[in-house]
Amino acid sequence: MRGIHYLSKLKAANIPPELLEKGQNRVIDASLTLIRERAKLKGELLRALGGVKASPTLLGVPLGHNSSFLQGPAFAPPRIREAIWCGSTNSSTEEGKELNDPRVLTDVGDVPVQEIRDCGVDDDRLMSVVSESVKLVMEEDPLRPLVLGGDHSISFPVVRAVSEKLGGPVDILHLDAHPDIYHCFEGNKYSHASSFARIMEGGYARRLLQVGIRSITKEGREQGKRFGKLGEGVKGVYISIDVDCLDPAFAPGVSHIEPGGLSFRDVLNNLHNLQADVVAADVVEFNPQRDTVDGMTGMVAAKLVRELAAKISK
Ligand SMILES: [Mn+2]
């Protein structure tokens, strides 16, 4: 995607930088306004309905450019929504919650990642916009963010916002084939392979419990190993699910196919057995460009979101 970045190649040195900066600020303000107003409306409705303490709220972050390989996860959020509401299955979760009930699942839309980048906004600022969007959701009791990625780089700005908003670190349950704790990957500190290094060094999480890891280098092993009961003595538990934690037999539509993974039932058992206050969650790395023609991985990602919604809602 070129956008305004392309101006430098056109030698547009005569364009005043303030002109670009002011325009970028307006676009970012407009983007945040739509999320803020939708979150406000959903929060007001849920508080008027009453009897609800935690309502999972979808926030899409269609960002794929921090992938080291393919960028298809940028196209995932609309595919996941489509599969959540696909008529081939009903709207009940496995433990009997009703997704049609706005107390169980609501939505504030997507952070317009491509539109913001198209204006020449860099990643420092873009990541702040993602964090700000998550905070706008959390501003409205009882909404809790259920974030649709996107590649795994989005977990850093999301967890940062959750921790800053709650005023302390969380514990993280991280399901993935990969540890994603490279200090820097290919020179990119925001790489999808470095998100948990940024989270841990920022103090946004106390514990990181990784499940499903099967593609780990020596550096990865050395960066790991610290663990009691998840969520005790912290502000709550954050769940991050990389779809590639699953064996590719269950979820072929991912960028990094890594055989020997978890079954869908293994993942659901992990979720259902977790006894903790889940404050927010994400589902990342679904790549629709690698999915089967019938959209099988989209349905898998959607079911992960549905079951996470059941886990968060109360
Ligand atoms: Mn992964």
TrEMBL record:
It comes from the Eukaryota. One of its GO terms (molecular function) is metal ion binding. It is an enzyme of class 3 (hydrolase). Pathway: Nitrogen metabolism; urea cycle; L-ornithine and urea from L-arginine: step 1/1. It catalyses: L-arginine + H2O = urea + L-ornithine. Keywords: Arginine metabolism, Hydrolase, Manganese, Metal-binding. Pfam families: Arginase (PF00491). The keyword Manganese applies. Mn(2+) binds at residues 152, 176, 178, 180, 242, 244. Binds 2 manganese ions per subunit. Its cofactor is Mn(2+). GO terms for biological process: putrescine biosynthetic process from arginine, via agmatine. InterPro entries: Ureohydrolase, Ureohydrolase_dom_sf, Ureohydrolase_Mn_BS. Belongs to the arginase family. Agmatinase subfamily. PANTHER family: ARGINASE/AGMATINASE, GUANIDINO ACID HYDROLASE, MITOCHONDRIAL. This is arginase.
